[in-house]
Amino acid sequence: MKISEHVYNMHIDDGHIAHPGGSNNFFVGDPDKEMILIDTGDYEKEWINQILDYYDHLGKPKLKAILITHGHYDHIGGLDRIYEATKAPVMAHPLLADKLSKIIGNREAIISLQDEELISVSGIHLKALFTPGHKEDHICYYLESDLVMFTGDSVLGSSSTSVKNLSEYMKSLDYVLKFKHDIVCPAHGPVAMPPKGSDLINSQKMHRIKRETQILDSLEKGLTEINDIVNDIYPRHLTEGLKPIASHNVRTHLIKLLDDGVIQMKDEIFNLIR
């Protein structure tokens, strides 16, 4: 599916509980000249085959590079087979260099990016934006010519993402918001087209701020354990499969509040500092 002048989306309904709305891999550039692929899907043969089939559908243009947003399995799981089929160099965060070189068996094909480095393809430029939080090796990519932000797992299309370090994550959201964009292309969930695209990242930031306020309110009520806080702030109909994700998100907020000096913890019991 064509998203903008230079962006094409290969969408798959992968069925993962944490990926409502399915998953996306993006080809960027000119199908008549050269393109770049963003991420390579997971280990499932069907997912990888769909990426390669879509590449065939585009006319098998020269693949100038494979860009990786971060090192989770559903973003690098198909790398070995896609690299074997295209021999395109792989560009990623420096923290991923060793891991990726082992996957493809060729260290020379791995290029470590720098923050705000430009990657050129078909006369346009993608800018690498180092955005830790979801994962320490995460990169978003910005295509200024089309006003498109590729957010990987930092911002999803129809749900909030899991976060490893919330303090870093909030800084990353502020960072990408500095770059004007009308379209957000997430790794999972629907692409956010105008007018929603220009507000999606900020709405996720506001969601996190609201969630922190809810957790502080729960602590004010005397709730001191993660499970009790989850039950207090999340919907009653939250499925069993999503409860571990909710618990993880509450924990990341609590860790941030610990780092901020707002609360204290002992034996997994959390209390406000009065």
What does this entry look like structurally?
The model has no long low-confidence stretch (mean pLDDT 94). Helix 7 packs across helix 8. The protein is of the alpha/beta class. It has helices spanning 45-57, 73-76, 79-86, 97-104, 166-176, 197-220, 226-233, 243-259; strands at 2-4, 7-12, 23-29, 34-38, 62-67, 90-92, 110-112, 118-121, 124-130, 139-143, 148-152, 183-186, 263-266, 269-272. It has two domains: 2-202, 4-Layer Sandwich (Metallo-beta-lactamase, Chain A), CATH 3.60.15; 209-272, Arc Repressor Mutant, subunit A, CATH 1.10.10. The longest helix is centred in the last third of the chain and has 24 residues, at 197-220. 34% of the residues lie in helices and 24% in strands. It is built from eight helices and 14 strands. A seven-stranded mixed β-sheet has the order 1-2-3-4-5-6-7. The N and C termini lie far apart (54 Å).
